[in-house]
Design goal:
Helices cover 7% and strands 60% of the residues. By secondary structure, the chain is mainly beta. The protein has a twelve-stranded antiparallel beta barrel. It has a four-stranded antiparallel sheet with strand order 11-12-15-16, with helices on one face. It has a two-stranded antiparallel sheet with strand order 1-2.
Length: 345
């Protein structure tokens, strides 16, 4: 173990050249970044959340229809961190993570205008969890886990030509446990997070059902992680917020199924993301004050996402998508898979 058991983040090593920070400095430093990554995975984008909704405008009496939807999502990723872990720069420790969640919602308001535009608003809940394996700079490892409970609301406006603005507000409660692999009691704490997303897209349609849809998105999160303590120190968390932007374009095609009103849409979407904040701090008490440690998510990354959405019956649609994300500085990557069901009645 490290040399912080008597009072905080750590003490100087024998020679004084390398701080002998205990392994929990890496373990706890990864908690805020994991919660931010999970919150963004639930927000996602319109077509990942509910599938292709362009076909809604062709239904009989769409304004009177009720719409419910649900999906499962899984994410697996790696935050490479600094080569020296918490001894290095803002990137902090190396950790891998797995998210799994169930999300379901329903439209509570729908209105179709005479000009062909329409509005729909609804609410959703999500239950999920995460597990992260964190590696300290000396090779020791520990686990962060949390259960998460989310309530959210959305409003989507579709223009007459199919352009859209999609807005989301969501709140999440986290129940966090952090366990080192050296026998000390686990650290337990809770957190409350708020998030908002605004996304827009404008499709350009071509013969044969082909389309190109440029998109832009802005996502903000703020998470308050409660102060905690372990056997050696008081732990505080600060600056747990994120401001991320995305620009991309969806390339796809829509087909009629067996010459029926039912449709099938397949698409691929490259995107460029940038995180302007995403530099949370975990602070350990010590004899000289609180010592900060970081696990920054800031910077640019690319994403490639592919999806399919089809009407199984006149009232039921299935949709699925998969994505790969990678930071341009080599600082991390992730894979995700999602599948959902939308029902009109």
């Amino acid at each position: 173990g490290g040399g912080g058991d008597g009072g905080g983040g750590g003490a100087d090593g024998g020679g004084g050249d390398i701080p002998d920070y205990r392994e929990e400095t890496s373990l706890y430093a990864a908690i805020p970044s994991m919660t931010l990554l999970y919150g963004r995975s639930l927000l996602d984008t319109l077509h990942e959340r509910v599938g292709e909704e362009e076909d809604e405008r062709f239904r009989a009496n769409p304004e009177n229809a009720r719409v419910g939807w649900g999906r499962v999502l899984g994410v697996n990723g790696v935050h490479q961190g600094d080569s020296f872990g918490v001894l290095g720069g803002e990137a902090g420790p190396h950790f891998s993570y797995d998210f799994l969640a169930l999300q379901a919602g329903m439209d509570v308001y729908r209105h179709d205008s005479l000009d062909g535009s329409r509005d729909q608003a609804g609410a959703y809940f999500a239950i999920g969890g995460a597990r992260g394996r964190v590696t300290h700079f000396d090779g020791s490892q520990g686990d962060n886990t949390f259960a998460a409970y989310t309530l959210g609301g959305y409003w989507t406006h579709f223009g007459p030509t199919g352009w859209y603005i999609d807005s989301i507000l969501q709140g999440t409660f986290y129940d966090i446990t952090s366990s080192a692999n050296r026998g000390i009691p686990a650290l337990k704490t809770g957190a409350q997070g708020g998030a908002a997303s605004v996304e827009g897209g404008y499709p350009f349609k071509f013969a044969g059902g082909f389309f190109i849809e440029p998109q832009a998105q802005l996502v903000y999160q703020n998470i308050n992680i409660n102060d905690a303590s372990d056997i050696a120190a008081q732990i505080r968390f600060a600056d747990v917020d994120s401001l991320a932007t995305r620009i991309g374009a969806r390339f796809g095609r829509t087909w009629a199924i067996d010459d029926s009103p039912r449709t099938l849409t397949a698409w691929i979407r490259p995107s460029l993301w940038n995180e302007f904040l995403g530099n949370p701090k975990t602070l350990f008490s010590s004899d000289t004050g609180f010592v900060p440690f970081q696990a920054s998510l800031g910077g640019l990354w690319g994403e490639i996402n592919a999806g399919i959405s089809g009407q199984v019956t006149s009232t039921t649609s299935l949709y699925a998508n998969a994505s790969y994300q990678s930071r341009f500085d080599g600082g991390g990557f992730s894979y995700s898979g999602k599948a959902g069901l939308r029902v009109n009645w």
